[in-house]
Amino acid sequence: MSKRAVVVIDLQNEYSPSGKLPLTGIEAAVANAAKVIADARARGIPVIHVRHEFARGEKPVFVPGSSGAEIQAEVAPLEGEPVIVKNHVNSFRETELERLLDERDVQEVVVVGAMSHMCVDAAVRAAADLGYSVSVIHDACATLDLEFGGVKVPAVQVHAAMMAALAFAYATLKSTEEYLAG
């Protein structure tokens, strides 16, 4: 088995039901992510947390120092677990994520987090492009309803479309149960 790391993307308070940008299914996704994180910790698999901030105040969400920018308590990092602060959708862009993975000789990245159609998608594609094997725990990710051209797309369909696209060429998709059984 290749050396693995779990990358937890943007499971921040802003996405919780009381946040400024609540996601459909976020509570279940966080609960599943917590199981994946607990398993990684028990098995000595590195856990790397990613936290989004809009450092220049360009958006009214993920404001540095705000409670919304904090990682949700259920998946909060333990002392010694790295936290990458990013200012872009892609967790690899202008961050130390690739360096941290390479220092740990990681070959397989397991992704959980939010939002399925944005930061999860960008990180998965970037990781695959950088040569990592990627697994996405699909029920440990969440998103929201979208609209384009007057067409409203429910979050469940947005999530399914993104997971189908990632499974087509970028990652292996597993449920939390499948991942933990493997």
Automatic annotation (TrEMBL):
Pfam families, alphabetized: Isochorismatase
Provenance organism: Aromatoleum toluvorans
Keywords: Hydrolase
The keyword Thylakoid appears for this protein: no
InterPro entries referenced in this protein's UniProt entry, alphabetically: Isochorismatase-like_dom, Isochorismatase-like_hydrls, Isochorismatase-like_sf
Record-given protein name: Isochorismatase family protein
Domain Isochorismatase-like: 5-147
UniProt key word Hydrolase: yes
